[in-house]
Amino acid sequence: MERELDEDELQDLYAWIDKIRLSRPKRNIANDFSDGVMAAEVVKHFFPKIIDLHNYTPASSTQQKLSNWNLLNRKVFSKLNFHVPEKSVKKIVLRSSGVIESVLSELKEKIDQKLDQKTHTISDLEYYDTRNPEKTLTELSQSEARYLSEMVRVEAKRDDKLKMETSKLQHAAQFYANLDPAVRQILKEKEHAAMALQETVEQVIKTFCRCVRIYNTSCVSSGQ
Protein backbone atom coordinates (compact mmCIF):
# COMPACT_ATOMS: atom_id res chain seq x y z
CA MET A 1 0.00 0.00 0.00
CA GLU A 2 2.71 2.48 0.97
CA ARG A 3 4.66 2.29 -2.27
CA GLU A 4 6.87 5.28 -2.94
CA LEU A 5 5.88 6.97 -6.19
CA ASP A 6 8.43 8.32 -8.62
CA GLU A 7 8.27 11.88 -9.88
CA ASP A 8 6.28 11.06 -13.03
CA GLU A 9 3.72 9.09 -11.02
CA LEU A 10 3.37 11.94 -8.55
CA GLN A 11 2.78 14.47 -11.30
CA ASP A 12 0.17 12.24 -12.93
CA LEU A 13 -1.56 11.84 -9.57
CA TYR A 14 -1.57 15.58 -8.86
CA ALA A 15 -2.92 16.29 -12.35
CA TRP A 16 -5.70 13.75 -11.79
CA ILE A 17 -6.67 15.33 -8.47
CA ASP A 18 -6.60 18.82 -9.98
CA LYS A 19 -9.33 17.78 -12.43
CA ILE A 20 -11.70 16.92 -9.57
CA ARG A 21 -13.82 19.65 -8.01
CA LEU A 22 -13.25 19.52 -4.26
CA SER A 23 -14.78 21.54 -1.45
CA ARG A 24 -11.47 22.94 -0.24
CA PRO A 25 -8.49 24.42 -2.07
CA LYS A 26 -5.65 21.96 -2.56
CA ARG A 27 -2.58 23.30 -0.76
CA ASN A 28 -0.72 20.52 1.04
CA ILE A 29 -1.91 17.06 0.03
CA ALA A 30 -0.96 15.43 3.34
CA ASN A 31 -2.93 18.03 5.29
CA ASP A 32 -5.79 18.28 2.81
CA PHE A 33 -6.60 14.55 2.86
CA SER A 34 -5.81 13.75 6.49
CA ASP A 35 -9.45 13.75 7.67
CA GLY A 36 -10.73 11.61 4.76
CA VAL A 37 -13.30 14.14 3.59
CA MET A 38 -11.54 14.97 0.33
CA ALA A 39 -10.95 11.28 -0.32
CA ALA A 40 -14.72 10.84 0.03
CA GLU A 41 -15.23 13.70 -2.43
CA VAL A 42 -12.91 12.02 -4.94
CA VAL A 43 -15.08 8.88 -4.88
CA LYS A 44 -18.24 11.01 -5.02
CA HIS A 45 -16.97 12.66 -8.20
CA PHE A 46 -16.85 9.33 -10.04
CA PHE A 47 -19.57 7.33 -8.25
CA PRO A 48 -22.05 9.80 -6.72
CA LYS A 49 -24.58 7.14 -5.75
CA ILE A 50 -22.36 4.99 -3.55
CA ILE A 51 -21.45 7.63 -1.00
CA ASP A 52 -23.18 10.26 1.13
CA LEU A 53 -20.83 13.12 1.95
CA HIS A 54 -22.95 14.14 4.92
CA ASN A 55 -21.52 11.14 6.75
CA TYR A 56 -18.00 12.59 6.61
CA THR A 57 -17.25 15.49 8.91
CA PRO A 58 -14.28 17.86 8.34
CA ALA A 59 -12.13 17.36 11.40
CA SER A 60 -8.97 18.35 13.20
CA SER A 61 -9.27 15.75 15.97
CA THR A 62 -7.56 12.42 15.49
CA GLN A 63 -10.62 10.51 16.64
CA GLN A 64 -12.94 12.03 14.03
CA LYS A 65 -10.36 11.62 11.28
CA LEU A 66 -10.01 7.93 12.12
CA SER A 67 -13.80 7.62 12.18
CA ASN A 68 -14.05 9.11 8.67
CA TRP A 69 -11.42 6.77 7.24
CA ASN A 70 -12.90 3.71 8.93
CA LEU A 71 -16.31 4.57 7.50
CA LEU A 72 -14.79 4.94 4.04
CA ASN A 73 -13.21 1.52 4.36
CA ARG A 74 -16.44 -0.17 5.47
CA LYS A 75 -19.05 1.58 3.36
CA VAL A 76 -17.32 2.83 0.24
CA PHE A 77 -13.88 1.41 -0.50
CA SER A 78 -15.23 -2.12 -0.13
CA LYS A 79 -17.42 -1.50 -3.19
CA LEU A 80 -14.28 -0.70 -5.16
CA ASN A 81 -12.38 -3.77 -3.92
CA PHE A 82 -10.11 -1.40 -2.04
CA HIS A 83 -8.99 -1.16 1.58
CA VAL A 84 -6.61 1.13 3.45
CA PRO A 85 -4.82 -0.78 6.24
CA GLU A 86 -5.19 0.55 9.77
CA LYS A 87 -1.47 1.26 9.94
CA SER A 88 -1.68 3.43 6.83
CA VAL A 89 -4.82 5.19 8.11
CA LYS A 90 -3.01 6.22 11.26
CA LYS A 91 -0.11 7.57 9.24
CA ILE A 92 -2.49 9.53 7.01
CA VAL A 93 -4.23 11.02 10.03
CA LEU A 94 -0.82 12.03 11.41
CA ARG A 95 0.03 13.52 8.00
CA SER A 96 3.11 11.36 7.50
CA SER A 97 4.96 12.27 4.31
CA GLY A 98 4.34 10.20 1.18
CA VAL A 99 1.60 7.96 2.58
CA ILE A 100 -1.49 9.66 1.19
CA GLU A 101 0.05 9.81 -2.29
CA SER A 102 0.51 6.05 -2.33
CA VAL A 103 -3.04 5.48 -1.07
CA LEU A 104 -4.58 7.87 -3.60
CA SER A 105 -2.59 6.30 -6.41
CA GLU A 106 -4.03 2.88 -5.61
CA LEU A 107 -7.50 4.39 -5.18
CA LYS A 108 -7.16 5.92 -8.64
CA GLU A 109 -6.35 2.47 -10.08
CA LYS A 110 -9.41 0.93 -8.42
CA ILE A 111 -11.64 3.75 -9.68
CA ASP A 112 -10.30 3.32 -13.22
CA GLN A 113 -10.89 -0.43 -13.06
CA LYS A 114 -14.47 0.02 -11.85
CA LEU A 115 -15.20 2.62 -14.54
CA ASP A 116 -13.78 0.32 -17.20
CA GLN A 117 -15.83 -2.59 -15.86
CA LYS A 118 -18.98 -0.50 -15.89
CA THR A 119 -18.33 0.59 -19.50
CA HIS A 120 -17.88 -3.01 -20.65
CA THR A 121 -21.04 -4.10 -18.83
CA ILE A 122 -23.19 -1.48 -20.55
CA SER A 123 -21.54 -2.27 -23.89
CA ASP A 124 -22.28 -5.97 -23.51
CA LEU A 125 -25.94 -5.27 -22.77
CA GLU A 126 -26.37 -2.78 -25.59
CA TYR A 127 -24.85 -5.10 -28.19
CA TYR A 128 -26.44 -8.32 -26.94
CA ASP A 129 -27.30 -10.43 -30.00
CA THR A 130 -30.82 -11.82 -29.70
CA ARG A 131 -29.99 -14.27 -32.47
CA ASN A 132 -27.42 -15.88 -30.18
CA PRO A 133 -29.23 -16.30 -26.82
CA GLU A 134 -26.65 -18.78 -25.53
CA LYS A 135 -24.03 -16.01 -25.26
CA THR A 136 -23.24 -15.35 -21.58
CA LEU A 137 -22.77 -11.70 -20.63
CA THR A 138 -19.76 -10.95 -18.48
CA GLU A 139 -21.86 -9.25 -15.81
CA LEU A 140 -24.73 -11.74 -15.79
CA SER A 141 -24.73 -14.67 -13.43
CA GLN A 142 -25.02 -18.06 -15.06
CA SER A 143 -28.57 -18.50 -13.78
CA GLU A 144 -29.65 -15.16 -15.27
CA ALA A 145 -28.04 -16.05 -18.59
CA ARG A 146 -29.79 -19.43 -18.66
CA TYR A 147 -33.11 -17.80 -17.81
CA LEU A 148 -32.75 -15.28 -20.63
CA SER A 149 -31.71 -17.99 -23.07
CA GLU A 150 -34.66 -20.22 -22.18
CA MET A 151 -37.11 -17.32 -22.34
CA VAL A 152 -35.90 -16.34 -25.82
CA ARG A 153 -35.96 -19.97 -27.00
CA VAL A 154 -39.55 -20.56 -25.82
CA GLU A 155 -40.84 -17.31 -27.25
CA ALA A 156 -39.04 -17.90 -30.54
CA LYS A 157 -40.58 -21.38 -30.76
CA ARG A 158 -44.06 -19.95 -30.27
CA ASP A 159 -43.33 -17.31 -32.86
CA ASP A 160 -42.14 -19.92 -35.38
CA LYS A 161 -45.24 -22.03 -34.75
CA LEU A 162 -47.54 -19.11 -35.45
CA LYS A 163 -45.61 -18.18 -38.57
CA MET A 164 -45.83 -21.75 -39.84
CA GLU A 165 -49.54 -21.88 -39.18
CA THR A 166 -50.05 -18.58 -40.95
CA SER A 167 -47.93 -19.73 -43.88
CA LYS A 168 -50.04 -22.87 -44.29
CA LEU A 169 -53.23 -20.85 -44.26
CA GLN A 170 -51.80 -18.45 -46.84
CA HIS A 171 -50.88 -21.29 -49.17
CA ALA A 172 -54.31 -22.78 -48.77
CA ALA A 173 -55.86 -19.43 -49.56
CA GLN A 174 -54.05 -19.34 -52.91
CA PHE A 175 -55.94 -22.45 -53.95
CA TYR A 176 -59.22 -21.33 -52.51
CA ALA A 177 -59.29 -17.70 -53.44
CA ASN A 178 -63.02 -17.76 -53.83
CA LEU A 179 -63.73 -18.93 -50.31
CA ASP A 180 -66.04 -17.08 -48.01
CA PRO A 181 -64.73 -13.65 -46.91
CA ALA A 182 -64.81 -14.91 -43.33
CA VAL A 183 -61.90 -17.23 -44.13
CA ARG A 184 -59.84 -14.37 -45.46
CA GLN A 185 -60.61 -12.46 -42.28
CA ILE A 186 -59.29 -15.40 -40.22
CA LEU A 187 -56.08 -15.35 -42.24
CA LYS A 188 -55.63 -11.65 -41.62
CA GLU A 189 -56.17 -12.14 -37.89
CA LYS A 190 -53.57 -14.90 -37.82
CA GLU A 191 -51.12 -12.65 -39.62
CA HIS A 192 -51.68 -9.85 -37.16
CA ALA A 193 -51.31 -12.23 -34.21
CA ALA A 194 -47.96 -13.46 -35.54
CA MET A 195 -46.68 -9.93 -36.04
CA ALA A 196 -47.88 -8.87 -32.57
CA LEU A 197 -46.17 -11.84 -30.94
CA GLN A 198 -42.92 -11.09 -32.74
CA GLU A 199 -43.03 -7.52 -31.46
CA THR A 200 -43.78 -8.80 -27.95
CA VAL A 201 -40.74 -11.09 -28.02
CA GLU A 202 -38.48 -8.23 -29.06
CA GLN A 203 -39.94 -5.97 -26.37
CA VAL A 204 -39.55 -8.63 -23.67
CA ILE A 205 -35.87 -9.05 -24.56
CA LYS A 206 -35.25 -5.30 -24.50
CA THR A 207 -37.08 -4.90 -21.18
CA PHE A 208 -35.17 -7.76 -19.59
CA CYS A 209 -31.83 -6.32 -20.71
CA ARG A 210 -32.77 -2.93 -19.28
CA CYS A 211 -33.74 -4.55 -15.98
CA VAL A 212 -30.43 -6.40 -15.83
CA ARG A 213 -28.57 -3.16 -16.50
CA ILE A 214 -30.45 -1.39 -13.70
CA TYR A 215 -29.88 -4.34 -11.37
CA ASN A 216 -26.10 -4.40 -12.01
CA THR A 217 -25.85 -0.65 -11.58
CA SER A 218 -27.82 -0.71 -8.33
CA CYS A 219 -25.50 -3.40 -6.94
CA VAL A 220 -22.58 -1.00 -7.41
CA SER A 221 -24.49 2.13 -6.48
CA SER A 222 -26.35 0.96 -3.36
CA GLY A 223 -24.92 1.89 0.01
CA GLN A 224 -23.85 5.03 1.89
Outline the structure in words.
With 224 residues, this protein is an all-alpha fold. The protein is 68% helix and 0% strand. Helix 4 (62-76) crosses helix 5 (86-93), helix 6 runs antiparallel to helix 8 (181-221) and helix 7 (142-175) runs antiparallel to helix 8 (181-221). The longest helix has 41 residues, at 181-221.
Topology:
Blueprint: H1 7-18, H2 29-32, H3 37-46, H4 62-76, H5 86-93, H6 99-126, H7 142-175, H8 181-221
Features:
mainly alpha, 224 residues
Low-confidence stretches: 122-140
Distance between the termini: 24 Å
Query: How big a fraction of the residues is strand?
Result: under 5%
Helix content: 55-70%
Based on DSSP secondary structure assignment, what is the total number of beta strands? 0
Q: How many helical stretches?
A: 8
Radius of gyration: 29 Å
The succession of helices and strands, N to C, reads HHHHHHHH
Quick overview:
With 224 residues, this protein is an all-alpha fold. The protein is built from 8 helices and no strands. The protein has helices at residues 7-18, 29-32, 37-46, 62-76, 86-93, 99-126, 142-175, 181-221.
